[in-house]
Amino acid sequence: MNANPKPSVASTPSSPQLVIRSERMVLRPLSEEDGALLSEFSADQRVAFGSRSIPHPLPDGAALAFIKAASAPDREEDVWAIDGSLSGSANFLGVISLKALDRSQSQIGYWVAPKFWHSGIASEAVGLLLASNPHANRTIFAEVFQDNPVSAWILTQAGFEYINDAEAFSVARNHPVPTWTYLRRMG
User: Fold this and answer.
1) pLDDT digits 0-9 by tens, 13-26
2) Is residue 2, in this structure, part of any structural domain at all?
3) What pTM was computed for the model?
4) Structural domain containing residue 117
């Protein structure tokens, strides 16, 4: 894995959202073709329990509704498929997103399908998105559930600094879960 990916960024003709490439992966807008794998992977309890917003069990049609919302011109966040086909892997490994906040800030979120865990995919996707900085942010925030130390490690390795404890409601768990909050100054 390239420790310092040098992304190439190009806009797609069908969407103002960017396509971001490294030697090993592409971060690209979600498409309807991702629906089956998105549904399969996000229905996994381990993925749902690591997220604030993925319900468990996953309702029928939820993946396609998510893709439609992520593709809408008035979307609230940019969501990319993590595509590993450049390196001979699957064309859908998980998702990574940036939700725009105010004052040149965004919040990053990501998940990778469990069968690709511990392969460097999440670390590379986070590094690639940060290197391209598609929202031209000054600051990027992140939060992870405290029972997910691997995601916390990924963030600290990407230059995020711990700022505080908090809690966030998890739809899948149906209760608030303690979180660690991080920030990364871009610059």
Assistant:
1) 234 689 999 999 99
2) no
3) 0.90
4) 8-185
